[in-house]
Structures are given as structure tokens and as C-alpha cells.
């Protein structure tokens, strides 16, 4: 069956990663059944409807993660499902923590369900995802970078596992199209301390008001290595972090997220 004949589902389609996933699937000729919280919200749908191929092969449906059976009719008849939707609760002290927890619990439940129902499942586990935004709203994973370039006074003594959003979207498709893909795939393009990130940004953007001092006098949180071997076995080529950082900041500027 050719890609043009394949119908796939993408949940949470208006999100950061999912928007790129929908874009790349349409580029490859897939018909995409996409679920969103509110298909009648033009602000959150415009960027999807504007994608090449959307008029012919993108179909939007309402999907509610908290309503059992909400996705049954959408998934029916699909060759594959890309499940990216996750509930986000912002009325907690640390919404990032709860978001991460929801992802962890959801994956554990998914593996259990897949095993019990003989479903072929693969999971993609990215680090901190950066890169240009297709959606009009700010997402959680790029917030640390936005804070860094948006008038921060100090450099956080923190190390992040950076990966480009376009690589994450591509990895989903490569895993789907590769019959031998199995298990979990950790996606990290590069592990870097925030000090190194600021150094790269200063070379790329002379107009940014970037911090110069570290937040404390403690030794830098060490970096480490995350193997790329499994991800590259899918055929994935990681985007250099310099390109990801440049494209992210330019996207911030385009969407007027910068206040300085």
C-alpha cells in the first residue's frame, strides 16, 4: 500500500511536535485524521489548515482524553496512530513536572494495553524539544530557551538534553514505516550546559541581551552522553544544535515572543 492510500491518525494535532508530524505526513502523501480539543477554534487550527495537502488529505476531529471512547471512531480504519496528546494542567506550582508525569504514566499504561491486546507499538522519547514553532502559542519545552533570550539576568546552572522538533516528528514517521522498529527510542541530539547554549546564541545573534553570570558559584552541572545509535538505525539524521537554536530564536522573533 502506498503512502497516498494510507490513512493515519494524529492525536493532539495542534501541538508543537504533532503540528510538524502532520506537516511531514502530508508531505509524504498520507491522509491524516487529526484530533484536537476544539476543531472550531480558528486560532489553533489555522496553521494546520494552511499546510500543503491539508485541503485534500487533512480531516479534523474533536478528541477528549478524559472521555472514554472519544477516539474510537477516529482511529477506526487507520493504518497507524501517532498518539501525542497529553493533558496539561497549568494550575500547579510546576506544570512541567505534572506534564512529565502524565507522559510517564501514559506510556506505562500504553505498554500494558499493547501487550494485552497484541498491538504493535513503538515509543519515541525526546529530550528538551526546540526548533521553530508552527503553532501560534508557546509550548512548555521551549520555555527555558525563551527565558534565556528574553532578558534573563543569570545563566541557569543546568544541563539539558536538546533535540530538534523536526527530528522528533521525522522519527515518528521513520519508526512507523520501518517494520523492524520496536521498543523505545530516546532522541537527544546533544547534551549541553546552558553556558554553552548562551555562547552559541551570542555568536548567532549580536542583538540579543543575553546573561553573562551563572546563577551560583557551584561547579557546572556535568554533561553526559546519550546514545544516538538506536535512533540513527531508523535512518534519522540529527539536526545540529546550532541550527535548532538559530531557527528557534528566529521563530520567537517572528511570533513576537521576545520582549527585549
TrEMBL record:
Keywords per UniProt: NADP, Oxidoreductase
A Pfam family of this chain: Epimerase
NADP as UniProt keyword: yes
Domain of life: Eukaryota
GO molecular function: oxidoreductase activity, acting on the CH-OH group of donors, NAD or NADP as acceptor
InterPro entries in alphabetical order: Epimerase_deHydtase, NAD(P)-bd_dom_sf, NAD(P)_dehydrat-like
Domain named NAD-dependent epimerase/dehydratase: residues: 8-91, 94-182
PANTHER family: NAD DEPENDENT EPIMERASE/DEHYDRATASE, NAD-DEPENDENT EPIMERASE_DEHYDRATASE DOMAIN-CONTAINING PROTEIN
Identification of the protein by name: NAD-dependent epimerase/dehydratase domain-containing protein
Species in which this protein is naturally found: Fagus sylvatica
Origin organism lineage: Eukaryota, Viridiplantae, Streptophyta, Embryophyta, Tracheophyta
Amino acid at each position: 500500500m502506498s503512502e497516498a492510500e494510507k490513512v493515519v491518525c494524529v492525536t493532539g494535532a495542534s501541538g508543537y511536535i504533532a503540528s510538524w508530524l502532520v506537516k511531514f505526513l502530508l508531505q509524504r502523501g498520507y491522509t491524516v485524521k487529526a484530533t484536537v480539543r476544539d476543531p472550531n477554534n480558528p486560532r489553533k487550527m489555522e496553521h494546520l489548515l494552511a499546510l500543503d495537502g491539508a485541503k485534500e488529505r487533512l480531516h479534523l476531529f474533536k478528541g477528549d482524553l478524559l472521555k472514554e471512547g472519544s477516539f474510537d471512531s477516529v482511529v477506526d480504519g487507520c493504518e497507524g496512530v501517532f498518539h501525542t496528546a497529553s493533558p496539561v494542567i497549568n494550575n500547579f506550582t510546576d506544570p512541567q513536572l505534572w506534564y512529565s508525569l502524565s507522559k510517564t504514566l501514559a506510556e506505562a499504561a500504553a505498554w500494558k494495553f499493547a501487550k494485552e491486546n497484541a498491538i504493535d507499538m513503538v515509543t519515541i522519547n525526546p529530550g528538551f524539544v526546540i526548533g521553530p514553532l508552527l503553532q501560534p502559542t508557546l509550548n512548555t519545552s521551549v520555555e527555558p530557551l525563551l527565558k534565556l533570550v528574553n532578558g534573563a539576568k543569570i545563566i541557569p546552572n543546568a544541563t539539558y538534553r536538546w533535540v530538534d522538533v523536526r527530528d522528533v516528528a521525522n522519527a515518528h514517521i521513520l519508526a512507523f514505516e520501518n517494520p523492524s522498529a520496536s521498543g523505545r527510542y530516546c532522541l537527544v541530539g546533544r547534551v549541553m550546559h546552558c553556558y554553552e547554549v548562551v555562547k552559541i546564541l551570542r555568536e548567532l545573534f549580536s542583538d540579543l541581551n543575553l546573561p553573562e553570570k551563572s546563577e551560583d558559584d557551584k561547579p557546572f552541572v556535568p554533561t553526559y552522553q546519550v546514545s544516538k545509535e538506536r535512533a540513527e538505525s531508523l535512518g534519522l539524521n540529527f539536526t545540529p544544535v546550532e541550527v535548532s537554536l538559530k531557527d528557534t530564536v528566529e521563530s520567537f522573533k517572528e511570533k513576537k515572543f521576545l520582549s527585549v
